[in-house]
Design brief:
By secondary structure, the protein is mostly helical. It has 6 helices and no strands. It has one domain.
């Protein structure tokens, strides 16, 4: 078996799914820490882009939340490629739902930042994207193990 074939095997695909599910748990814990215990910086409406990025880089949990979010987006693209390569029935569709869900969560999180951490609808939409991604990847893990 070549190295490329091995990377896209069902065994490695399931391992990658466990990794992304683990990082989703980490992202949840960081998000809840931010929500419950961290005071967000006061950002006035119409602030410069630099002000928003300073908020990310000066708030450690927010920076970690942002970095894990970017990693989750990259990981979800990798999972979609793996789902296509492994040829598991319904896997590409389920992986695409996971990717779109994480995109929704990421964009909502960025909009929440741009609102000066004031728009609850973006916070809520971020959490919905997270839950949809978690369910998608859990389901993907289930269907990838069928027939073993």
């Amino acid at each position: 078996m070549s190295r490329i074939t091995e990377i896209f095997s069902k065994k490695w695909f399931r391992r990658d799914l466990l990794v992304i599910l683990g990082f989703l748990v980490v992202q949840f814990m960081l998000g809840m820490t931010l929500n419950l215990f961290v005071s967000f910086p006061n950002i006035p409406a119409g602030s410069s882009d630099q002000t928003y990025f300073n908020a990310i880089f000066t708030t450690p949990f927010l920076l970690e939340h942002f970095i894990v979010g970017v990693g989750l987006l990259l990981g979800s693209a990798w999972i979609l490629i793996g789902a296509i390569k492994t040829k598991i029935r319904n896997a590409p569709f389920t992986a695409a739902i996971g990717l779109v869900s994480l995109l929704v969560a990421y964009v909502s999180g960025f909009e929440f930042l741009l609102s000066g951490f004031q728009s609850n609808i973006f916070s809520f939409t971020m959490s919905l994207g997270f839950v949809a991604a978690l369910l998608s990847y859990f389901r993907l893990y289930q269907i990838s193990g069928l027939g073993n």
